[in-house]
Predict the structure.
Amino acid sequence: MNEQAVPSGTSPVDTTESVGRSDPWLRRYRLAAIVSTGGAVFLTIAGGVVRLTGSGLGCDDWPACNEERFIDVSSGHAAIEQINRLFSGFIGVPVLLLLVFSFMAKGRPGLRWPAIGVFLTVVANAVVGGTAVRGDLHPALVQSHFLLAMASISFGMVAVARSGSRPVETSARRGLTSLVALALTVLTAGALATGTVVTGTGPHAGDEEARRFGFDISAVAEVHSVTALLTIGVALFFAYQVGRVTPSKVLSGAISSWLFVGLLQGAIGYAQYFSGVPEMLVGIHIALATFLWVLTMRLLLRTLTPPVAVGPVGPTGDADERSPADLVAHD
């Protein structure tokens, strides 16, 4: 690709922004990234609905619903699982387009690896989902199904950020703030992982006959609780860090949103545990866990990415004054 001359008085960032707005493939990449990430969030919550309604084996075969029919909506459980599979197939379209667009878009570095990450984790999740059905919803497979969805969301949010505005600076934020953000991300991932162990030990298996982990529910719940409390503690320290030590309005807003959802998630978790884990509270807990991971990735990306001079390129090609992560999780 021929290099464009930089007009007098125009910074390299301005030129990059011009390239971004004029490249239709970059705009298409960004739109595909937003739809893929939003779809992964939706499917994660929808998967919780399937499990909590006992519809996990509404279709007991894969890819066909059962031995008699490829598509079967003859019962409520089958219909719920069939709709979930239908949406899972739909989300494959923007994921595949994201991968294609990553090879077509020009003028931005680092677009391919998050697109490849989204594609591989979505394909892996489809395989794990089918294996989970054929394996009668073994809790380890169901656990992997959720964690792979979190990985898809992570790669998708990186793709959204990478297709936004180029930063004014080329160096990332360094120091204690970035280290605390990384620690918060690792601990949040740990809390999600231990939460899936609690789920795999508890009563909501997706089917009455499905296997469960043989752990003591109180013990695994305590481990999950300790992990969650440590995560909240690090989040509070991060809030202090960006509020008093290295003030940042952007990061203060991001951590405030995280703390609101994180504390609400903790309250719901204790409420469901002491009330016999009713389906409604468990469903809310799953949805909040998914949204908390979105906010965690948003915070991490904002911490490691310097502020921008102008808004990112919107999916329609117009400048958007919000940060890249805001297109996935609003303030």
